[in-house]
């Protein structure tokens, strides 16, 4: 009898192990409910050559597509959560009252991912230059940060995750933006006030198993946008709120992809009366436009996933809206007659502001005056992209008050353009070698305007302060064809 039970157990385990493969061979197709692209089926050959990465690629593909994957992931995570109060998914942190948080926000919450003052000053200056570019095109500009869920609901975070400081990149960056006169929409302040009201009613303004705000929270940003555009609009008050209980969420799908969500979802109805241009798909395309005949208002909105839920509401109220998730930001086409340019960035992505050069044609500077001193600098160019970038001695550089510029000379013609305080990755080794610990603050980079006169230009670097200008010798040449 005992031997029969052993055989039965072994047979059951073998059958269980073969079940995923058998279901795949029978044509089982799981759904991609996770907020990431799944691995694509690999090919044994790349053209006429053997694909040497096939074993690794096939392993990734099988991990993402094996039969009954969603059901097994759901079962295993449910067991580990019941026994240990956590799951095996490293993207999800389980908080109190079954509240899920995104693991990538933990550094912001604890204060262990704080940027330096110099980094945040440079980020603020980059946003300021984007603001200047928008205003030069005739548009108003505003910038906002969508708070991480644990910034609004810290009381639901697990007790074992402790804060090292109450300082945040969000509040410090906001302070520098205000110093520079940038229109900053304080969503954290607005959402905190709304949360106090919602708590009294037993309501939430972020989803339970999702990283994002629900419509109670999102509608605040919609109203901020419409207030800046002017004109009348539908405010969507609570009398038009519709509630259902069939929502899951992105974090839910990481942990329990086979389990249907039964969490509260809220919406304001109706929202519609617009069209999407050029047969674009808002679920797939990184840039798309909507339009309607309601008014002549126009908006360029750089956004991430937090704005997805607002697309129907904004599009039904604004005559023309261009939405873009492209990063680095591409400002080369904001001259298409927009009334406003607005950037929304989720809190956890603040560090990205200083890592990638936006595509923005450089602003020309006039009346520079005499250059009264020298500064150590090194520069390079990318002729194909029209970039000039380099590094300089940033020992006493203040991004909030100083201006970085590049001077170009060609046959008696001289042009000076403002540069972004950004270090290109190709210059890091050189910058570290010459400027030590200050190397990260030493970058400058710009994209030359399209309408520059043809010719070969020599370029040099200039650091401008209120009472002086210091410069470098010639750093290189770039040909405009």
Kindly summarize this structure in a few lines.
The chain has 481 residues and is an alpha+beta fold. Helices cover 30% and strands 22% of the residues. The longest helix is centred in the first third of the chain and has 24 residues.
Secondary-structure map with pairings?
Blueprint: H1 2-25, E1 45-46, E2 49-50, H2 54-65, H3 69-84, E3 92-94, E4 100-102, H4 106-110, H5 117-136, E5 140-146, H6 149-152, H7 169-179, E6 184-185, H8 187-201, H9 215-229, E7 241-247, H10 250-255, E8 263-268, E9 275-276, E10 287-291, E11 298-302, H11 311-317, E12 320-324, E13 340-346, E14 373-374, E15 377-382, E16 387-392, E17 403-410, E18 413-418, H12 428-435, E19 443-447, E20 455-464, E21 469-471, E22 476-480
Parallel strand pairs: 5-6, 5-13, 11-12, 11-13, 14-21
Antiparallel strand pairs: 1-2, 3-4, 7-8, 9-10, 10-12, 15-16, 16-19, 17-18, 17-20, 20-21, 20-22
Helix pairs in contact: 5-7
What does this structure look like?
The protein is α+β, with helices and mostly antiparallel strands and 481 residues long. The chain is built from 12 helices and 22 strands. The protein has helices at residues 2-25, 54-65, 69-84, 106-110, 117-136, 149-152, 169-179, 187-201, 215-229, 250-255, 311-317, 428-435, and strands at 45-46, 49-50, 92-94, 100-102, 140-146, 184-185, 241-247, 263-268, 275-276, 287-291, 298-302, 320-324, 340-346, 373-374, 377-382, 387-392, 403-410, 413-418, 443-447, 455-464, 469-471, 476-480. The strands form 6 sheets. A 7-stranded mixed β-sheet has the order 6-5-13-11-12-10-9, with helices on both faces. Strands 14, 17, 18, 20, 21 and 22 form a 6-stranded mixed β-sheet that branches. A 3-stranded antiparallel β-sheet has the order 15-16-19, covered by helices on one side. β17 and β18 form a beta hairpin. α5 (117-136) packs across α7.
């Amino acid at each position: 009898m005992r031997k029969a039970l052993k055989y039965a157990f072994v047979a059951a385990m073998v059958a269980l192990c073969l079940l995923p493969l058998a279901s795949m061979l029978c044509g089982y197709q799981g759904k991609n409910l996770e907020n990431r692209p799944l691995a694509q089926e690999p090919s044994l050959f790349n053209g006429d050559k053997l694909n040497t990465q096939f074993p690794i690629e096939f392993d990734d593909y099988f991990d993402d597509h094996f039969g009954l994957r969603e059901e097994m992931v759901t079962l295993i995570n449910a067991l580990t959560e019941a026994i240990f109060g956590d799951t095996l998914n490293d993207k999800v942190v389980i908080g109190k009252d079954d509240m899920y948080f995104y693991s990538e926000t933990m550094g912001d919450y604890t204060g262990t991912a704080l940027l330096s003052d110099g980094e945040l000053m440079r980020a603020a200056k980059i946003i300021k230059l984007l603001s200047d570019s928008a205003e030069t095109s005739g548009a108003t500009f505003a910038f906002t940060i969508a708070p991480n869920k644990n910034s609004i609901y810290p009381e639901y975070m697990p007790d074992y995750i402790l804060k090292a400081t109450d300082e945040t990149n969000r509040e410090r960056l906001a302070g520098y933006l205000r110093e520079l006169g940038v229109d900053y929409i304080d969503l954290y302040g607005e959402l905190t006030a709304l949360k106090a009201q919602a708590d009294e009613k037993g309501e939430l303004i972020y989803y339970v198993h999702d990283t994002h705000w629900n419509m109670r929270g999102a509608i605040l940003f919609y109203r901020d946008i419409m207030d800046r555009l002017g004109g009348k609009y539908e405010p969507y008050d609570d009398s038009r709120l519709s509630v259902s209980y069939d929502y899951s969420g992105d974090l839910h799908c990481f942990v329990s992809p086979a389990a249907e969500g039964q969490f509260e979802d809220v919406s304001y109805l109706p929202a519609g009366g617009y069209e999407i241009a050029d047969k674009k798909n808002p679920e797939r395309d990184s840039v798309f436009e909507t339009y309607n005949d309601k008014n002549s208002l126009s908006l360029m909105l750089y956004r991430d996933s937090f704005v997805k839920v607002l697309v129907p509401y904004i599009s039904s109220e604004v005559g023309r809206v261009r939405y873009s998730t492209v990063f680095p930001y591409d400002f080369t086409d904001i001259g298409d007659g927009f009334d406003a340019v607005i950037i929304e960035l989720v809190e956890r992505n603040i560090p990205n502001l200083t890592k990638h050069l936006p595509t923005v044609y450089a602003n020309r500077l006039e009346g520079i005056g005499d250059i009264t001193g020298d500064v150590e600098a090194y520069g390079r160019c990318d002729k194909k992209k029209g970039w000039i970038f380099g590094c300089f001695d940033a020992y006493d550089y203040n991004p909030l008050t100083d201006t970085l510029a590049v001077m170009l000379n060609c046959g008696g013609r001289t042009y000076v353009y403002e540069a972004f305080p950004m270090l290109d990755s190709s210059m890091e080794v050189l910058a570290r070698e010459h400027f030590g610990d200050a190397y990260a603050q030493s970058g400058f980079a710009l994209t030359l305007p399209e309408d520059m006169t043809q010719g070969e230009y020599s370029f040099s670097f200039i650091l401008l302060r209120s009472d002086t200008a210091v410069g470098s010798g010639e750093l290189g040449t770039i040909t405009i064809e």
